[in-house]
Amino acid sequence: MRVVLTVGLFIVFLTTFFILFIGSTLLKKSITCENLGTENVDCSIETYNLEMIMSFFMVLSFIIADVGAVYLMVTSWKS
Fold this sequence. Notes:
- The protein has helices at residues 2-30, 50-78, and strands spanning 31-37, 40-45.
- By secondary structure, it is an alpha+beta fold.
- It has a two-stranded antiparallel ribbon.
- Strand 1 and strand 2 (40-45) form a beta hairpin.
C-alpha cells in the first residue's frame, strides 16, 4: 500500500508541476498586452493555433493522470 501511495503522490506532484509550467507558458505566449497610458492596459488573446491546442490536450492528459493516480490511492487505502 505504501508503494502505491508513494507512486501516486509522485505522479500527482510531477503532473501538477507540468500543468503549471505548460499553463503559464501558454498564457505568456498567447496573451498580448499594450500599455495605453497610466493604469490603462489593453490585453487580448491572439488567435488559436496548433500549439495552443496541443498544450491544452497535454494539460488535459495530465489532469486525467492525476485523477487516475488519486483513484488508485483511494482504492488502495481501503485494503
